[in-house]
Amino acid sequence: MVVAAVLGAFGMAACSSNGNGSTQTTGGTTSTGSSSSTSISSTTTSSTAAGAACAARDLSISVVGSQGAAGTFELTFALHNTSTSPCPSDGYPSVQLLDASGTELPTHVVSGGNYQFTNFAPSPVQLAPGATAYFNLAYSDVPSGGETTCPTAAQIEVTPPHAVDHGVVAVQLAACGAGTLTVSPVFGSGSPGSQTTAPARS
Question: Considering the domain boundaries, does residue 162 fall inside one?
């Protein structure tokens, strides 16, 4: 499924970056390593009960688009339902940076944030078998404050909204601001959010 990319309003010219990623898993996994904690900032609460949502074990999770300029990068992730049953998804995913060995790196997650491609209201998505939902992720590779280096990740752990398991995707990114990652809510291919996706990766 090809999702349209409309990001001209941000003045972000597509370019190759250290945000290139590829699918590493299609199912749920268990966390390994714990060198740092993840902090999450969110102002939106969903009514979906914990566990009553698409599980990572039933999803193929991959990076399908990337774009960046002036130190700000956007990745679009796809959540493809590989099961034979429909499942709901509503709200923000959780993400955690990992090194090549699976050890957690400093990660600070902001839900929504100030980017136009991440800051829109969550809405319920019903994923039929074979259907795909998406979410966008933003980060900066420009050191801030007293930083001299930024966490460089080889993998990213993705927990779908309200899921109790996660998948791991191979990426190459250096997220500054103590590993700050801004995520959008999950959105369907026919929703207004689909107009915010990064260009498909070649």
Answer: yes
Give the structural domain span for 30: 20-189
Provide the residue count of the chain: 202
Q: Which pLDDT tens digit goes with each residue over 105-121?
A: 999 999 999 999 999 99
* CB contact set of 45 (below 8 Å; sequence gap of 6+): none
Q: Render pLDDT for 176-196 as a digit per residue (tens, 0 to 9).
A: 999 999 999 999 988 989 999
**194 part of a folded domain:** no
* Residue 88 domain-assigned (yes or no): yes
Of 21, 126, 8, 129, the closest CA to residue 77 belongs to: 21
Strands 94-98 and 152-159: antiparallel
Task: Please tell me the distance from the alpha carbon of residue 74 to that of residue 187, in angstroms, as a whole number.
Answer: 16
